[in-house]
Design brief:
The protein has 252 residues and is mainly beta. It has helices spanning 38-46, 86-99, 159-165, 226-232; strands spanning 13-19, 22-27, 52-65, 70-81, 106-116, 122-127, 135-137, 142-146, 149-155, 170-176, 179-184, 192-203, 208-212, 216-221, 236-248. Helix content is 15%, strand content 48%. The strands form 2 sheets. Strands 1, 2, 3, 4, 5, 6, 8 and 11 form an 8-stranded antiparallel β-sheet that branches. Strands 7, 9, 10, 12, 13, 14 and 15 form a 7-stranded antiparallel β-sheet that branches.
């Protein structure tokens, strides 16, 4: 039996999000400072720049983390890789190379706590089942998921234009049942949710951070003509078509 004190009952550590096995905490004030850093930390505190930390509670279940994300575990937790052989390793290396995610993600299973490294990035939890057909995430957003979630590759329809635009060609797609823990460039409360029903949206740059796998993603000129694209000053844009959901950050 493991008994953790001065964490969940610490008034300086606030629970800000919780779903199922996952909890996200925020450290309200950072007291681990030296006098030289105090002015900077003061203004960081005034602007809400705080460290956040995720805790996953396993009850005979499992979770998959991004490589290097674990800080400590407590209880009967066993760590292993999700590699089933040489062929599987090669496939995961290819997948990691094209999606800019870690090729080998450690799997933790058992009963107890898995605590992730603190981060200044914003964290939010998504239920993969809420995204019909799967949840596609932008590069570097994946932090963890429950062991029941499948990891696939989603790619753009027109690869040549994606290369010219400088955007990624492949993205990580999460499917199946379970929760996913993602990192966001902005507070989750600022993410704009757009629902499409057999319609189209054009987004300049990489402001879309997550979208339904049911949507078709292409990279196209903002106008039908080259002159029109030059006049608008937009050039190439990301075009989502179909029925599904998009989470978009107002700034990147």
């Amino acid at each position: 039996m493991v008994n953790v004190t001065n964490y969940f009952d610490n008034p300086n550590i606030k629970l800000i999000d919780q779903q199922g096995s996952m909890r996200v905490f925020e450290i309200q004030k950072d007291y681990t400072m030296n006098p030289q850093a105090a002015p900077l930390l003061y203004y960081c505190d005034q602007m809400g720049v705080r460290r956040r930390q995720a805790v996953i509670e396993l009850q005979g279940s499992s979770c998959i983390l991004s490589s290097g994300a674990m800080q400590w575990t407590a209880g009967a937790i066993e760590a292993q890789t999700d590699i089933k052989g040489v062929g599987d390793l090669f496939g995961k290396m290819v997948k990691g190379a094209v999606t800019n995610e870690s090729a080998v993600k450690p799997l933790y299973k058992g009963t107890g706590l898995v605590v992730l490294e603190p981060t200044y990035k914003f964290l939010f939890i998504q239920n993969v089942e809420d995204w019909n057909g799967g949840l596609v995430v932008d590069d570097g957003m994946f932090l963890a998921c429950e062991g029941t979630v499948e990891q696939k590759i989603a790619r753009r329809t027109n690869l040549s234009s994606a290369v010219l635009s400088g955007e990624g060609i492949f993205n990580l797609c999460l499917k199946g049942k379970g929760l996913a823990l993602l990192e966001s460039p902005v507070p989750p409360s600022e993410l704009i949710e757009i629902n499409l029903e057999n319609d189209t949206i054009k987004i300049d740059g990489n402001f879309a951070v997550a979208w339904s796998n049911t949507l078709t993603l292409t990279t196209e000129r903002s106008s039908k003509s080259l002159i029109g694209s030059t006049v608008t000053g937009e050039g190439l844009v990301n075009v989502f078509r179909g029925t599904g959901k998009i989470l978009m950050a107002p700034v990147r």
